[in-house]
Design a protein that fits this description.
Organism (chain B): Gemmobacter denitrificans
Protein name (chain B): YitT family protein
Order of helices and strands of chain A: HHHHEHHHH
Keywords (chain B): Cell membrane, Membrane, Transmembrane, Transmembrane helix
Radius of gyration of chain B: 16 Å
Structural class of chain A: mainly alpha
Helix content of chain A: over 70%
InterPro entries (chain B): UPF0750_membrane, YitT
Strand content of chain A: under 5%
Oligomer: heterodimer
Largest interface: A-B, 35 and 37 residues
Order of helices and strands of chain B: HHHHHEHHHH
Membrane topology (chain B): Multi-pass membrane protein
Number of helices of chain B: 9
């Protein structure tokens, strides 16, 4: 068995491959239902919706500026893993419509599945030292410079995304999207514990 | 925050809910493609294909004898949690086709997807002190008592099931099923580490 506290490169690779696959399936469900979400992917969904540009391209573009910040704050490994993760997710989201075509879906179930898939994807990628775009790094930087709590900034930015979405989406879609985002946030809040998963 | 070493009741409940939902989603993918798999669920799928009975009731019934073994070797908490997970999976597989459907699904991607979904489901259930019954109990018992990796024990049982599956399905279907089962077992073999995820 490999070292308890340090993942091998192969272990990181399978963790990121798993996370990207689960996130891509979650995005596929989100797009199929016309839902929105928060964080980096949420910003990309909104921009793609407003401009008509393809989501994978927008998402990859949105994550690029945060790579430099991630490198400086979290080191080159984090930046490299984040780049691999976002590039792979962009590619997979572009390919997935050719592999999976969803039929009719119950919207509440779709929202819960999205939340769980994104939750497990986030957990796997973060535990293996990467991220899905690292806008949270911006909030960490903000906290360091101004003292404004990163958690609050993250919540506030999600509120802004949902407020903007309220202008372009019907209320029921917005409500289902909120359920999905809530499941995702709760999943991470309960399960992302460095004191329980001790490897890095 | 709760104690790092012990999950609270709510933490276990969300782990079980996540595990049962992901496993049910995995079974939906598996049966949509007509694939088979290993472990107790694989036995139930084979019986379901051979008799035309639904997977849910068959899976629930097969697991009943194993609860005694679970109670005796693993304690009542494990047995009760496993019963809850098995009952939830059985119920969810009966209602999920009404909630989620696929128009098209690439068989190779579907097989890998099944592997990831079931692997994540089992990992969550194991870490929260439950299993999906039967062979999982025997495998976990062997890992805890003799130090045999649960992934390898399950692979041995899977080999027997796949030999039987060759009599029921064509070779390409069994080959794809093998890919799915391989992914499940790799996810467990690499990631089920009590030294890394220390909470119970």
């Amino acid at each position: 068995m490999t070292d308890t506290h340090r993942h091998s490169a192969l272990e990181d690779a399978q963790g990121i491959a798993f996370g990207v696959s689960m996130a891509a399936l979650g995005m596929h469900i989100l797009t199929h239902m016309g839902f929105v979400t928060g964080q980096t992917t949420g910003i990309a969904v909104l921009i793609a919706h407003l401009t008509g540009l393809p989501f994978p391209l927008v998402y990859f573009g949105v994550t690029l500026p945060f790579l430099g910040l991630g490198w400086r704050r979290m080191g080159w490994r984090f930046a490299a893993k984040t780049l691999i993760t976002t590039a792979a997710l962009s590619g997979m989201v572009a390919l997935l419509p050719g592999w999976v075509e969803l039929g009719r879906m119950d919207p509440v179930v779709a929202a819960c599945l999205f939340g769980m898939l994104f939750g497990i994807a986030g957990l796997a990628v973060v535990r293996h030292g990467g991220s899905f775009g690292g806008i949270s790094v911006l909030w960490l930087e903000l906290q360091d410079r101004t003292g404004f709590a990163a958690g609050h900034a993250q919540l506030l930015s999600d509120l802004v995304i949902f407020a903007l979405a309220a202008f372009i989406l019907p209320w029921d879609i917005l409500a289902y999207s909120f359920i999905g985002a809530a499941v995702f946030a709760l999943f991470l809040a309960v399960n992302h514990r460095r004191d329980r998963y001790v490897a890095a | 925050m709760t104690d790092p070493k012990t999950h609270s009741l709510i933490e276990d409940a969300q782990g079980l809910a996540f595990g049962a939902t992901m496993a049910a989603f995995g079974i939906l993918v598996l049966t949509h493609l007509g694939l088979v798999t290993g472990q107790t669920a694989g036995l139930a799928v084979l019986i379901s294909y051979a008799t035309g009975w639904g997977f849910g009731p068959v899976f629930f019934a097969i697991n009943i004898p194993f609860y005694l073994l679970g109670w005796w070797r693993m304690g009542w908490a494990f047995t009760v949690k496993t019963f809850v997970a098995v009952a939830a999976l059985s119920g969810l597989t009966m209602v999920m086709p009404g909630w989620v459907s696929f128009a098209t699904l690439n068989p190779v991607f579907g097989a890998v997807l099944f592997g990831f979904l079931s692997g994540a489901a089992l990992l969550a259930l194991f870490r929260h002190g439950a299993s999906l019954g039967g062979i999982g109990i025997v495998a976990l018992m062997l890992q805890d008592r003799l130090g045999w990796r649960a992934g390898w024990v399950q692979l041995g049982f899977d080999a027997l099931l796949f030999a039987a599956a060759l009599a029921l399905r064509d070779l390409p279907t069994v080959a794809l099923s093998f890919l799915g089962a391989l992914v499940v077992n790799l996810v467990i073999a690499i990631n089920h580490r009590r030294d890394r995820y220390i909470a119970t």
